[in-house]
Amino acid sequence: MLDGGFIELKLRYADTEDLAVGDFVHSDDIYVGGHTWRVLCYSRGAISTGWQVGEYLSIQLELVTRSNNVKAIFAAFLVHGDGNPSAVHAKSVVDVYPHGAGAGAAPPGWVYFASRAELEKKYVSNDGWVTIVYGVLIPSDSPQALSPPPPPSGGGGHIGNLLYGADDTADVAFVVNGETFHAHRAVLAASSRVFKVALFGLMAEATMATITLQDMDPAAFRAMLHFIYMDALPDDIDELAGFSPIDMFQHLLAAAERYALDGLKLLCAKKLLDNVTPETVAVVIVCAERYDCPELKKKCLEYLGRKDEHFRKAATTPGCLRLMQDFPMVMDEIRAVIER
Fold first, then answer.
1. Which PROSITE patterns does its entry note (predicted)?
2. Does residue 109 form part of some domain?
3. Which residues of the chain have pLDDT under 70?
4. What is the DSSP letter of 304?
């Protein structure tokens, strides 16, 4: 589960001209994971030594609450002058806060987030403002992730609100068989190492505002996004595309394997097992082999060996023919089970 929120920080670009290196403005506070956070924005840079002093925008995340050992994901992106989010100036970092306590270390962030030349050229709106959207996400494995006091008004809400709420901070879109889904790079990257490499690494997708996905079912992608943001399957999953439960969870298992979502993969395996019958068991074994679910395969083999009629009915299904064609060696394992 992730708790998090996003908020905008606006700078009047003309007002930054007279600021000195090390001068900063801070954002409004945001309440996430039981803690209060704010962003420090140095329009002429945070440090007075090094490369191109005064020519870069620096951004840092500050933990305002007096807490220790809080693991958080800090994400930020610039908004183009025309209102579209930047795919180039979009970054995220994972760290434990407070950072370098007692050592004088700066809070995590980026000293060279964007050059002032780029700001002026691409990111100043017609009315003279520069907009930075930042987010704080607290993963469930943070020792201080759960703190129960109620958030103050205006703070960030549950991360699921970003997917279904009135939110315009999405910075990437996916086109799946003609359907468009909006999402947040930082949320996806925090949930999946595959998304992290694709959206923040050296792959072409890192600079694309819209990504077209091949060989993906829209209903399964929608359910996968719901799981990433809500840590649960959608209540209407059986109705998303009119699929049978077996078909739906096959598609969703493929998506989970593709994006290395181990929690979703385990959940899909359980759902498939719950729907095993003599008519579906062979298809489920194919899925177990294809997507490396050994425990699911083991349970299906045990199901076949439990009653003779299970195998007799399964042997006449199209799924059994597919199993023999795609994974013929599994038939030897099935014979060993039923001959015990």
1. BTB
2. yes
3. 1-3, 99-107, 139-162, 164-168, 238-243
4. H
Verify cis geometry, omega within 30 degrees of 0, for the bond prior to 98: yes
- Greatest alpha-carbon pair distance for the chain in Å reads 84
For residue 135, is it within any domain?
yes
- Identify the burial level of 76 via C-beta atoms within 10 angstroms of its C-beta, where 0-12 means exposed, 13-18 middle and 19 or more buried: buried
Tell me how many domains the chain contains. 1
Q: 31: closest CA among 138, 105, 141, 126?
A: 138
The rounded distance, in Å, linking the Cα atoms of 166 and 197 is 28
Q: What is the pLDDT of residues 85-132, one digit of tens each?
A: 777 788 888 888 886 544 445 667 899 999 999 999 999 999 999 999
Report whether 64 contacts 37 (CB < 8 A): yes
pLDDT in tens, 219-244: 899 999 999 888 788 877 766 656 67
Burial per residue of 17-42, b for 16 or more beta-carbon CB atoms within 10 angstroms, e otherwise: eebebeebbebebbbbbbbbbbbbbb
**Contact in structure between 94 and 4 (CB atoms under 8 Å):** no
pTM value is 0.59
User: Residue 157: enclosing H or E segment and its boundaries?
Assistant: none
The one-letter amino acid code at 70 reads V
Q: Per the domain annotation, does 103 fall within a domain? A: yes
Strand partners, 62: 38
Whether the CB-CB separation of 323 and 282 falls below 8 Å is answered with: yes
- List the domain range (segments joined by +) for residue 114: 1-144
The CATH number given to whatever domain includes residue 69 is 2.60.210.10
Give Cα 11 to chain centroid, integer Å.
28
CA distance 12 to 155: 23
Residues 6+ apart with CB under 8 A from 179: 218, 221, 222
Contacts of 280 (CB under 8 A, 6+ apart): 246, 317, 319
In a domain? residue 197: no
Supply the angle between the helices 281-290 and 262-274 in degrees, to the nearest 10.
160
Fill in the amino acid letter for 316: T
